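Narrative summary of target 7.
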Amino acid sequence: MLVHADTFSRYGAGPDVSYMLNGLWAEVGRADIVNDPDGVSTGKAIVFGGNLNSSGYARFVLPNLNATSGISCRLWVDALSSAPGDNSAIPMIWWNDAGTRLAEVRFTATGRAVLYYAGVVIATSANPVITANAWWHLEAKFVFASGSGATFELRREGVPVLTASGFTTALYPHSAGFGASRFGTTGGVACYYKDLVIWDGTGSYNKDFMGAVVVYDLLPTADVDIGGWTSTAANGYSVLDNNPPSDSAYISAAYPVPSPCEFSFSDLPSNITSVKGLITRIRAAKVDGGDGQLQVSVVSDASEQAGSDRPITVAQTYYQDVFEVDPATSSPWVPLAVADVSIKLDRTV
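Modeled conformation, tokenized:
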């Protein structure tokens, strides 16, 4: 199932990545959020390395321990490492145990992909996989096993470029991440990432290779019904799309519990032909130590699917729910249906 997706477009810009740590990413180190480096595309990317001249990383805690774990992203490097050995200035994706690096993919100075498990080289691609100054879509699937049945496959633009099987693993991953492993003393390669997606082998949908997925932010555009909530602005929707978030602009639901509020949001681009799923993401907090629970739902053609009913804390925290199926049809989303979806917020306690 779809676990997480990110465009890195809603955390502001520059070296302050602190909003990513509001309960969404477990760790982020030595990163900037910048404009897309290709000079053509709009939106943001997260970058590690470059003039930061050190290792950089981001780590996401997986919600469940599963044998199958997948990561896909687009990767851009401004150069391939010219330093000897395959540990210098190399971007990577990886899986961790609770505190130990289990498996990782690195790239050599010639652009070949290398799979490591427990620090040991398992396989190397026969040909270069990436080049500098171009976006490459990469998707990796690792099937961990308690014996010698582990398998791995890396695809570039949907085509397998590195496979391995028959090696021994002992643990399931607790977290997944990406970044750049380390850099030389005179400067480092800049490694940019966007369109990041994490999935696992559970559920009915999105449990195997997903292909060259693009991640879009769909922002609130109008109040359908403000319900019993209040806003610091003249409406509700306009305070929900601040970038970066603003703690002084918000909607609120005081006790006694009011009726829910509901908002429409922007459409997908017209050239989108399929949809893997919707992920709602809300940054919320309560003002004291009393009870407070928040439930986020999507509404499609008068049919509603509710996310988890969660207690919230006094710390500003991101809460997200994954919706892989249109509640109006009980089938995967289609672009036309997404155009009419609204999001509902309900304080339940």
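The longest strand covers residues 190-200.
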